[in-house]
Design a protein that fits this description.
alpha+beta; Beta-Lactamase; globular; GAF-like_dom_sf; GAF; GAF domain-containing protein
């Protein structure tokens, strides 16, 4: 297993993540709606909005998985945030980076993974990722769909920040 390396902008990335005020918050319909739609549209077992802090990946929204987080050092998403485009692993058992990963050899038995980085203010704070227990590859249309849904999640994060700023301003007045 190869743990993911830290991005070159790790300090800024963590600052941006902190500014979103998303970590360890309750479920929100705006994000759960997206993950439900992605699961249905792409026919995968698991869909996550995964946010990566210093030590873990924490799931803001999840479909098909009970865990709330996993260690960053075994995360597929830790690799995905290093890419500007979708990071895809067609068959984790055939990939030297992941074949002995505990998320592959044990529950949830990841065989296929694709993660679209969530970019806020130039930093990849996490991913919208899809996972299956069987090997596969996304078609070009499915890749486009995943990226469009990731763009939607990014916009929901920005909208949420604006709503919070507006509420704080209203409270001061």
């Amino acid at each position: 297993m190869q743990p993911p390396v830290q991005p070159s902008n790790e300090a800024q990335r963590l600052k941006t993540l902190d500014e979103t005020a998303l970590l360890d918050t309750q479920n929100e319909q705006r994000f759960d709606r997206v993950t439900r739609l992605v699961k249905r549209c792409l026919g995968v077992d698991i869909v996550l909005i995964s946010l990566l802090d210093e030590t873990r990946q924490w799931f803001k929204s999840k479909q098909g998985l009970d865990a709330c987080d996993t260690p960053r050092e075994i995360s597929f998403c830790g690799h995905a945030i290093l890419h500007s485009d979708i990071f895809e692993v067609a068959d984790s058992l055939q990939d030297v980076r992941f074949k002995d990963n505990p998320l592959v050899t044990g529950a949830p038995h990841i065989r296929f993974y694709a993660g679209a980085p969530l970019i806020i203010d130039g930093s990849a704070i996490g991913t919208l990722c899809v996972i299956s227990k069987a090997p596969r590859m996304l078609t070009s249309g499915e890749r486009e769909t995943l990226r469009e849904f990731a763009d939607l999640v990014e916009q929901e994060i920005v909208d949420r920040l604006q709503e919070q700023a507006h509420a704080q301003l209203s409270a001061r007045e």
